[in-house]
Amino acid sequence: MNDASRTYDVVVIGAGPVGENAADRTVAAGLSTAIVERELVGGECSYWACMPSKALLRPVIARAEGRRLPGLSEALSGPLDPAAVFGRRDEFTSHWDDAGQVGWLDSAGIDLVRGHGRLDGPKQVVVATPDGGTVRLTARHAVVLATGTTAALPSLPGLDEVRPWISRDATGAKEVPGRLAVVGGGVVAVEMATVFQALGSQVTLLVRGQGLLPKMEPFAGELVADSLREAGADVRFGASVASVARTGGEVRIGLADGGELVADEILFATGRRPHTGDLGLDTVGLTPGDWLSVDDTCRVTAVEDGWLYAVGDINHRALLTHQGKYQARMAGAAIGVRAKGEPVDDRPWGAHVATADHAAVPQVVFTDPEVGAVGLTAAEAERAGLRVKVVDYDLANVSGASLFGDDYRGRARMVVDLDRGVLAGVTFVGPGTGELLHSATIAVAGEVPVERLWHAVPSYPTISEIWLRLLETYRQ
User: Fold this and answer.
1) Where is the FAD/NAD(P)-binding domain (predicted)?
2) What are the residues whose beta carbons fall under 8 Å from the beta carbon of 463, sequence distance 6 or more?
């Protein structure tokens, strides 16, 4: 085989968890597969997103929960040790060394090509390697794009000179800034505000809208905002950044209302954009920098002959690692049967389609309190034309929650599709509720009739007793 020109059944660009899952499924289907990666094998999730952020958050949440328990709270009166917190984070990122992930690729029979991969016409991928060379890869059956997203920064004069933090800088921080301004009100913003306030920063959260976590039920953002304020953070709504400038070690932030804020660092958590700007999309008739529209088997709809797939963040269906891995499993299986000339099971909830992208996307926000949600919010269900009943319950009135910690605060919501008699969505907000979410995901994805859920008896005394309370309230 000529190293500069290789042919595989499938070529995957992007070796994060999503690309790895796609490659694993195509190899399992008996297809030779190469995967291309320009940074670290394991991708954003392993080194700059899911793993480091949750490693940073876990001691913060554990301390908050412990402080609600008499007999333990007194032992937790001191500050967190930032060096120890960062050290544990470093262990979970393998100190940004991908040798273990590379070993997994080898064991799975997936060939790794390091470098920047770009499309170069139908089923062609050209890789610029770190040593300055070029490798051309030809795919017999499919090319899978799994290149993820990067931070979307606003257009502000002089922003580059300010050297703002993005999510990577926050999750990879080595020191705790004395004053941290966080711009945004979504998941990254609230999670990183939670971390750095607990580690000793004075955090100011600048939110352009009127609430946090705008894609979730309104009460989720309200409870998280209350908790951040109680922890000492300054949460400002209706606050837009008009200008930024760095003078010495300080960042001066001009606000649209004429006010000014001074911080040591500024984190922009204002959304994501797709890593498709330098991917060779123009060579196959697509626009560089665009999100890629796909069908339910994750084939790019605008490309003829069905050889190009896009999985994970870049198809803009659900910017979540677990959902991208799910898409990759479906896409990999579909590529396998198509390569063999076998029929695709494209029925809703079939073996080769990502139906859950539409109906049952779960997400946990690891703040204090935790937020877990799956399916539709009440507002989304109504916009979709569903006839629904919304059932709310105060989690503080659940025995398991009151045992979990004193002064427990939380809320649960169940959105019932009355015409089908199933759950359209569920939201839990409260300490320890993230681990409840999979039960809700099963109920929503499985379209379990509400009358059948009545017979799923929750263990007493656990927080999961919320299911009984929601169902009792629904039946009243």
Assistant:
1) 8-322
2) 395, 398, 400, 401, 404, 430, 432, 433, 436
Give the CATH fold of the 369-475 domain.
Enolase-like; domain 1 (3.30.390)
Binned at pLDDT 50, 70 and 90, residue 1 comes out as: very low
Beta-strand pair 134-145/5-13 = parallel
CATH: 3.50.50.60, 1.20.1250.20, 3.30.420.40, 3.40.50.1980. Which one for 5-42+98-150+274-356? 3.50.50.60
Tokens standing for 253? 């932030």
- pLDDT (tens digit, 9 = 90+) per residue, 197-238? 999 999 999 999 999 999 999 999 999 999 999 999 999 999
Q: Where are the alpha helices (DSSP H) in 232-299?
A: none
Domain extent listing, the chain: 5-42+98-150+274-356, 152-270, 369-475
Q: Each residue of 85-135: pLDDT tens digit?
A: 999 999 999 999 999 999 999 999 999 999 999 999 999 999 999 999 999
CB within 8 Å of 42: residues ≥ 6 apart = 15, 16, 17, 20, 98, 101
